Amino acid sequence: MNTNTKGHILFVDDDVVTRNTLAVSLRDKGYEVTECGDGLEAFNWLRQNRADFLITGIKMPNLGGFELIERLKQDPRWQALPFFIFSHRGDPTDRERAKTMGAADFFVYGFVTPNDIAEVLARVKPPAP
Fold first, then answer.
1. For 30-83, how does the pLDDT look when each residue is reduced to its tens digit (9 = 90+)?
2. How far apart are the C-alpha atoms of 31 and 127, rounded to whole Å?
3. Whether this model's pTM surpasses 0.70
4. Are 88 and 109 in contact (CB under 8 A)?
5. Which residues contact 112 (CB under 8 A, 6 or more apart)?
6. Buried/exposed code over 73-87 (b: 16+ C-beta within 10 A; e: otherwise)
7. DSSP assigned state of 126
8. DSSP 8-state assignment for residue 3
């Protein structure tokens, strides 16, 4: 992690506009952000890189967010990685699955609005040292 940042976030979502909009806001607040378009891309990126926490969508091509988390939890290096689920739907089943898997938080959004961005920025916190 760059010592000048609050932490390195891996942000995974197939919606480019949403991902880019939030990534810019997170960078403006001092986070280093790497963006991936699906879970498989993120999984492959993590094989060679480190992140302090993960924000992931649920439904994506190649590998969805829940499947990504399941794969990461099989690797001791990533079992304690804090993760946040980012969902368009807010389905109670998805919310319960995220909780069961150990999600740090669950965000529901429609179109990314300034309120959505403010909520994410308020709730994403660097992991305790």
1. 899 999 999 999 999 999 999 998 999 999 999 999 999 999 999 998 988 999
2. 12
3. yes
4. yes
5. 17, 18, 21, 22
6. eeeeebeebbbbbbb
7. P
8. T
From 51, 56, 72, 55, select the one nearest 8 (Cα to Cα).
51
Residues 6+ apart with CB under 8 A from 31: 5, 6, 7, 8, 9, 124
Structural domains of the chain ordered from first start: 18-93+101-123 (3.40.50.2300)
Nearest to 121 by CA among 28, 20, 55, 26: 26
Secondary structure of residue 86 in the 3-state scheme: strand
Tell me the two tokens of residue 32.
Answer: 């280093």
* Beta carbons of 13 and 19 less than 8 angstroms apart: yes
Residue 69 Cα distances to 3, 12, 117, angstroms: 26, 11, 23
HSE-up (13 A, CA, CB side) for residue 12: 31
